[in-house]
Design goal:
Blueprint: H1 13-22, H2 26-39, H3 42-53, E1 56-57, H4 58-65, H5 69-81, E2 85-90, E3 93-98, H6 101-115
Antiparallel strand pairs: 1-3, 2-3
Helix pairs in contact: 4-5
């Protein structure tokens, strides 16, 4: 018998009703899936991990990650659109940082999870 399926056909109505009530909306779940697509790119994760350490400009990030400035800029554009990073201008320089503590928390939790 398949050990991933129930042996009987019993539905637990109370559990199903509660889960249905507590489930996020389809739109919210879609947005979460889109967010995880952004996190699904190792280059973007590397950039986010670097920015979790310090605010950095494109030149700094490109040196730390051994990438071209063009490639870093492209990925930063995606991360900004997803509201995962923010920037600030100081004279002619633009510095990037994580948008908020949630981004850092997601990265930390993911790293904890893979190390279990």
């Amino acid at each position: 018998m398949n050990d991933l399926m129930c042996d009987d056909n019993l539905v637990h109505d109370e559990v199903c009703e509660q889960v249905t009530v507590d489930m996020p909306s389809e739109n919210d779940l879609y947005d979460v899936a889109e967010l995880f697509k952004i996190f699904g790119d190792s280059t973007r994760i590397r950039i986010l991990s670097a920015l979790a350490q310090a605010e950095m400009c494109v030149c700094d990030i490109s040196v730390v990650l051994n990438m071209t400035k063009s490639a870093v800029s492209h990925q930063l554009r995606i991360l900004r659109q997803a509201k995962l990073v923010k920037n600030r201008r100081k004279g002619k320089e633009i510095f990037y940082s994580l948008d908020d503590d949630h981004v850092n928390s997601i990265i930390k939790l993911a790293l904890e999870h893979i190390k279990e």
